[in-house]
Write a structure and sequence with these properties.
CATH topology of the largest domain: Metallo-beta-lactamase, Chain A
Bound molecules: flavin mononucleotide
Family: In the N-terminal section; belongs to the zinc metallo-hydrolase group 3 family.
Number of helices: 12
Shape: elongated
InterPro entries: Flavodoxin/NO_synth, Flavoprotein-like_sf, Metallo-B-lactamas, ODP_dom, RibonucZ/Hydroxyglut_hydro, Rubredoxin-O_OxRdtase
CATH class of the largest domain: Alpha Beta
Structural class: alpha/beta
Distance between the termini: 49 Å
Protein name: Flavodoxin
Organism: Kosmotoga pacifica
Largest sheet: 7 strands, mixed
GO molecular function: electron transfer activity; FMN binding; metal ion binding; oxidoreductase activity
């Protein structure tokens, strides 16, 4: 990974791996790192597509210099996305190549000035405009809010490569191989979904708009800004992204509970038995204080059913459950079933908030009965109701 890697005639991956950052966007755990993918096209004109996070500039620059033919300079930097994990090296890049012309759309150039004070040698492009490098012809597609307002994609008409920005990208550094046929795809697919559901999912409608715009385009390679480059089976990730952004779900249920002393957990175990008795195999159980929210959101995005159970804490929902409920509303998830239950010892409060969530969002989440509330510790009747909730949820997701 110390030098550029050819992905097609004249096109090179010049990205870097970050195995140091613990939390992407200071929020999302990176147990296996993340790659910041950037690309270089060598033609009559030389173009770079995106940069890397600031601290990785020297690795990036070394790759550029090693590939750059003698006597040539870098002519263009195309900015698909201004988030600093991709734009962080722009300012120093401009110092290294002062003649460089920076290409972005109107919004990109506003961000460029705001973040880095760069205003010189910029070219604003419109949706559908084409830039000729020689053999390679790059067409720009503005795809706002996938996932920032300035995001765009760059399509190389010659090689049929789509430089897609953050779309189709995911967590996980690239360890050796960079292509879909060289890596453990099962791992990356999970991490692409974790990236999508937590970061891009809220803008699913805009992802669908982008799909409409790209309709009919022959795509042989997808080169995103994170994760593997799809050269063998790009249609696989396109299909997954299409399904996820249409909020199509799989048959399965996510169980999330918050419990301090085990009573609420006991209720969730009864729910799980009910699901199992109706043949549900894909059950993902999360103790909310043990699983990071990003993995819970990933599973909820994937499956059709969600059951949440919470103890009461100072008159309210258990604090991390509150965070989950707010995250669900922020992601604007749809077409799913939800079941809720709670426990308390004097005044209650947790269940009320979960029911309020279900009622507020009843167009997007269909409530599955019964709703159960246990005082102190669940009795036999409570546990039977929990099993019934599991059975009813199983029937709902199979209907
Ligand atoms: C710090 C703390 C705060 C609590 N606050 C409330 C409360 O405001 N209202 C209430 O009815 N119960 C309250 N409870 C009681 C628990 O919600 C109740 O015992 C519940 O059954 C605990 O479930 P668990 O065993 O799954 O943790 C509180 C318990 C603790 C430890």
């Amino acid at each position: 990974m110390h030098k550029g890697i050819k992905i097609h005639d004249g096109i090179f991956w010049i990205g870097v791996n970050d195995n140091e950052t613990h939390l992407f966007e200071s929020l999302w755990p990176l147990p296996k790192g993340v790659s910041y993918n950037a690309y270089m096209i060598l033609d009559e004109k030389v173009a770079l597509i995106d940069t890397v996070k600031g601290g990785y500039f020297s690795q990036y620059l070394n790759k550029i210099k090693a590939l750059l033919p003698k006597g040539k300079a870098v002519d263009y930097l195309i900015i698909n996305h201004m988030e600093p994990d991709h734009s962080g090296a722009i300012k120093v890049l401009v110092e290294a190549f002062p003649e460089l012309k920076i290409i972005g759309n109107k919004k990109t150039l506003q961000f460029l000035e705001g973040f880095y004070g760069v205003t010189k040698n910029t070219i604003s492009v419109e949706d559908g405009e084409v830039l000729e490098l020689g053999k390679h012809k790059l067409k720009f597609y503005l795809t706002p809010m996938v996932h920032w307002p300035e995001t765009m994609m760059t399509y190389d008409i010659t090689s049929r490569t789509l430089f897609s920005g953050d779309a189709f990208g995911g967590f996980g550094a690239l360890n050796g191989g960079i292509f879909d046929d060289q890596v453990d795809l099962e791992y990356y697919e999970d991490e692409i979904l974790r990236y999508f559901s937590n970061i891009v999912g809220r803008y699913s409608g805009m992802v669908q708009r982008a799909f409409k715009k790209l309709e009919g385009l022959e795509i042989k390679i997808i080169a995103a800004t994170h994760g593997p480059v799809w050269r063998s089976n790009p249609s696989k990730i396109i299909e997954l992204y299409d399904r996820w952004s249409k909020q199509e779900t799989e048959e399965g249920v996510v169980l999330v509970y918050g419990s301090m002393y085990g009573n609420t957990q006991k209720m969730m175990e009864a729910v799980a038995s009910g699901l199992c008795s109706e043949g549900v195999k894909k059950i993902r159980l999360h103790n909310i204080t043990q699983s990071h929210l990003s993995f819970i959101i990933r599973d909820i995005w994937r499956f059709k059913g969600l059951i949440m159970g919470s103890c009461t804490y100072n008159m309210e929902l258990f604090p991390p459950m509150k965070q989950l409920v707010s995250a669900l509303e922020n992601r604007m998830m749809k077409n799913r079933y939800v079941g809720v239950f709670g426990s308390y010892s004097w005044s209650g409060g947790a269940l009320k908030e979960l029911e309020e969530f279900a009622n507020r969002n009843n167009k997007d989440w269909t409530l599955v009965e019964p709703v159960i509330e246990a005082l102190h510790s669940p009795n036999d009747e409570d546990l039977q109701k929990c099993e019934l909730l599991g059975r009813n949820m199983a029937k709902a997701i199979k209907s």
